[in-house]
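Hello,

Our lab assistant flagged a job as stuck in the queue for most of the afternoon. It eventually completed. Since we weren't sure the result was trustworthy after the delay, we are filing this so someone can double-check. Below is the sequence as submitted and the structure that was eventually returned. Let us know if re-running is recommended.
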Amino acid sequence: MLNSALFLPLALLLDRLLGEPRRWHPLVGFGRLTRAVERFGYPSSPDAEPRWRMRLRGALSVSFLILPLTLAAWLLARLPLLSAIVPLVLLYLAVGARSLAQHAEVVRQALADGDLALARERVGWIVSRDTSELDEAGIARATIESVLENGCDAVFAALFWFLLLGAPGAVLYRLSNTLDAMWGYKNARYLHFGWAAARLDDVLNYVPARLTALTYLLLGHAASGWRCWRTQAPTWYSPNAGPVMAAGAGALGVSLGGGARYHGQWKERPPLGCGPAPTHQDIGRAVRLVSRGAWLWAGLSLLWAVLIGVMHA
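-- returned structure --
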């Protein structure tokens, strides 16, 4: 536990200083491998496949992609000459706090400059909804929702699984989350083939999502955040995104959620949060909420590990 806790602030510092690798990022290579496995595992005639067999194909594909790489992380982290480097590097690669902040900052700055065209284009890089007709509030809303949700996916959940299982935990989580982003859609192609990827991500995110929501409460308007979490999260379509986004919106004191257009189809979504519609200034507040939360986790985990060490000394 002490070693894992020591790695947290170091990995966050590396992420802040370096950001994501611009070339040869392992997740880019994993994405290519995923597409190759999909070509092999996905049937040529999916309509002729029963649901159980499609799910089995997807589950086997997920296992083939995740288990060997998680095992490799475990073996590398146990090598005496690499035990101090591999966990730090893998956690650094699993955490995407700076990248998340940079994407959000471009949108915030474009809105501050009154450049709606650029803001719509760049928010489209981080959300799946149609952005071509969004106004300033809609752009700010979409950006903040992405920051809050990805605060869990790209930061807190990776930290949680690293603390729990070390380097293999961070790798297991990050790969499963990437697979969910690629296969976890409820459309005709992935509804059953991507079922295992989506369920695995739901399971791995269950506890981190609620710890993320609690973090937002501690660093924001706690009473509003708790009320929104308790009353609004159950109405959201995702069991993990609901607590995160409801608590985050309440903690920030802004209104999120509501209807949005996805792939040409209008989707009614429940409201989240409370207070006025967000502005570009609230994007910066959301980014700072995630950043402060990550450093809070690093500090508390280190303090806990030191206390445990002192008690057993």
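-- support follow-up --
The delay was a queue issue, not a problem with the job. The result is valid. The first helix runs from residue 2 to 18. The chain has a mean pLDDT of 94.
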